[in-house]
Write a structure and sequence with these properties.
There is one protein chain. This protein is mainly beta. The protein has one domain: Sandwich (Immunoglobulin-like), CATH 2.60.40. The protein is built from 2 helices and 9 strands; from the N terminus they run ααβββββββββ. The longest helix is centred in the N-terminal third of the chain and has 19 residues. The protein is elongated and about 85 Å long.
Length: 167
C-alpha cells in the first residue's frame, strides 16, 4: 500500500515538473525593454529619452512638434541640447532638474515646454533624425517617427501652422 502512495506522489511530481519545466528556461518577455507606444527611446548619460515622436499636420506639414518625455536620473540639473534634422542650425536647449520627469510637446499652442521644428518637410509615416546631447556625454541620435493628428490621441499634439512669435 505504501509503495502505491509513494509511486502516486512520484508520478504526480514527474507530471508537474514535466509540464511546467518548459517555462523554467524559456526567455521571459517581461524582462525585455520595448517601446510600448509609437515613439522611440534611448539614454544619453543620466537622461532617459522616452517615447520620442514628431507630430505634424499632414496637409500643411511645415512645423513639427517634438513630443518626448525626459527623465533626469542625476543629482544635478542638466541642460539638454536637442537638434532635429541633418542640416538644422537651430538647436533647442531644455533644462531638466534633478529627478524631474519633463514632458515636451503636450500643449503645442503654448509657448513653453515645446520643441518646434521649423521648415519641417518630413511626411507622416517617415523617420526623422533627432540628436540629444549634454555636457561631455556621448550624444544620442534617434530615428524618430513622424505622425499626424489622424488618431484621436494625437489630435491635440498637432502644432500650429506657423510658429508663435516668441519661439
Amino acid at each position: 500500500m505504501k509503495a502505491r502512495v509513494v509511486a502516486s506522489v512520484v508520478l504526480a511530481l514527474a507530471v508537474a515538473f514535466g509540464t511546467t519545466g518548459c517555462g523554467l528556461f524559456a526567455p521571459q518577455a517581461t524582462t525585455k525593454h520595448y517601446d510600448a507606444s509609437d515613439g522611440v527611446s534611448g539614454n544619453v548619460g543620466q537622461i532617459d529619452v522616452r517615447n520620442a515622436m514628431i507630430v505634424t499636420d499632414a496637409k500643411n506639414g511645415e512645423v513639427g512638434n517634438l513630443v518626448v518625455t525626459l527623465v533626469n536620473n542625476d543629482s544635478k540639473s542638466v541642460s539638454l541640447s536637442i537638434k532635429a534634422g541633418d542640416n538644422s542650425t537651430s538647436t533647442a536647449e531644455v533644462t531638466v532638474k534633478p529627478g524631474q520627469v519633463k514632458l515636451l510637446g503636450e500643449k503645442p499652442t503654448a509657448s513653453s515646454g515645446n520643441v518646434f521644428i521649423p521648415d519641417f518637410s518630413a511626411q507622416p509615416g517617415s523617420l526623422y533624425k533627432v540628436y540629444f546631447q549634454y555636457g561631455d556625454e556621448t550624444g544620442l541620435q534617434l530615428q524618430v517617427p513622424v505622425l499626424d493628428g489622424q488618431l484621436p490621441a494625437y489630435q491635440s499634439l498637432v502644432p500650429p501652422a506657423t510658429l508663435p512669435s516668441n519661439e
